[in-house]
Please model this.
Amino acid sequence: MKPNSQNGRDKAVRLSDDDFAFICDFVYQSTGIVLNDNKREMVYRRLTRIVRERKLNSFSDYCQLLKQQGAQEKDYFINAITTNLTSFFREQHHFDYLVNEELPRLMAEKTVQANGKKRLRIWSSASSTGEEPYSIAISVLEAMQEQLSSWDAKILATDIDSNVLAAGKAGIYEDRRIESLSEKFKQRYFHRGVGKNSSNVRVDKKLSDLITFKQLNLLHEWPMKGEFDVIFCRNVIIYFDKPTQQELFTRYYDLLKPGGLLMLGHSENLGEFQQHFNTIGRTMFRKSK
Ligand SMILES: C[S@@+](CC[C@H](N)C(=O)[O-])C[C@H]1O[C@@H](n2cnc3c(N)ncnc32)[C@H](O)[C@@H]1O
Model:
């Protein structure tokens, strides 16, 4: 392992090899995220803030705190360590496929349930600040339009990070986050704030009504029972090692309906699990019927 690359820059707070190794192990055990030496600077930056906030003198003191008060400190620590980059309609081709192919197909094929409605379930399994589930909700509304009232349609949005979940639930974004959306979408689905909130937009209630935000660590037990028509697992498994990825793919497979769709992020693939799915497009996979 390299000597501390932050040496000479901020000697007041040093990250020793032992402390870094402890933090990597703690992160792996808590989240499945694999940190290696090239993430050392990132860890250093993100945790320096916490060490200062906690008025501690060193990373060693912070490691002690994590050891002694793991449960209390863990949530805060995880929120600091996760990478939450996302955007509305990120990887647009997934939403195009949803609107133009998958939802019309489901609308034609699904039958009415005992409750008199047709059932649709979509899971955004690393939803970050909400842009992904809201983009799914817009796609559902665009594809189904007035037919939506005859559907029991729900989108589950989960993430390990309690801060990003709170942001998703709030549904308020700086207006630059929706800059690239069409005027039609901006007008239909977002409301501009007034006064000091005039540079923010709030998502329309018809989007938030479709979505339930819940904290869920993908490594833990999944409480959901019913099967999903579509699962978004995008730009999260990239942070995990191969055994964790393969275990998660097995669990996603089990939770998908036969013929259900799994969407991965742009640099992710199913590896050996590919044999259980049919590739239907770039990073889009269908569970065999
Ligand atoms: C880069 S964001 C991806 C957001 C969105 N899916 C997208 O593609 O734009 C990765 C998200 O995965 C979440 N995450 C990391 N480890 C997780 C875990 N073990 N369980 C659940 N979510 C996790 C992070 O909190 C973060 O919000």
Notes: The longest helix spans residues 92-109.
